[in-house]
Amino acid sequence: MNNVNEFFKQAGATRNKRVICADGFEMSVQAHNGAYCSPRTDNAEKYTSVEIGFPSEREPMLMQFAEEVNDPTGTVYGYVPVQIVTNVLAKHGGIVEGEVPRGVAPIPANFTTDAPERGALT
C-alpha cells in the first residue's frame, strides 16, 4: 500500500480527491463519519458543512474555521458551510480536477452565467 487512497479503499471507505482550481489554488474537501462536517455520516444525501484541509495558500473566507490559525496551509478547517466552500471555488475560477461532497456546488472551471451583465440593457 503506497498511498492514502489505497488505504481507504482497502478499509472500505472513500475520500474525495483533492480539488485543484483554475487559478492553481488547491484544497481537500471532505465529508464522512470521521470528518468535521454535518451531518457527520458517510454518504449523506446532502451535507450542510464540510471539512477543508491543507489549502495551498491562505484563503481569507476560510480563516474563521481554521483549527490552527497560525498555520493556514497546514491545518484543517472544520464545519465550513457549503455556501462558503462554493464561494471559494468560484473565487478561484472553478474546479479543474478533484471532487467535492454532495451539497457543495461542483462549479467547473470556466463556468458562465446566463444572467445579464450589470448595467446591460435587456
In percent terms, what proportion of residues is strand? 15-25%
What is the ordering of alpha helices and beta strands? HEEEEHE
Domain tally: 1
The separation of the N and C termini measures 59 Å
Q: Which strand order spans the largest sheet, edge to edge or round the barrel?
A: 4-3-2-1-5
User: What is the mean predicted local confidence, pLDDT?
Assistant: 88
**Content-based structural category:** alpha+beta
Largest sheet: 5 strands, antiparallel
- What is the count of helical runs? 2
Instruction: Please provide the count of β strands.
Output: 5
Helix proportion: 10-25%
User: Nearest-angstrom radius of gyration?
Assistant: 16 Å
Q: Which consecutive residue ranges, at least 5 long each, have pLDDT under 50?
A: none
Shape: globular
Sequence-ordered SSE layout with sheet pairings:
Blueprint: H1 4-10, E1 19-21, E2 26-30, E3 49-53, E4 76-81, H2 82-91, E5 95-97
Antiparallel strand pairs: 1-2, 1-5, 2-3, 3-4
Question: What are the key terms here?
Answer:
122 residues, alpha+beta, 5-stranded antiparallel sheet, 14% helix, globular
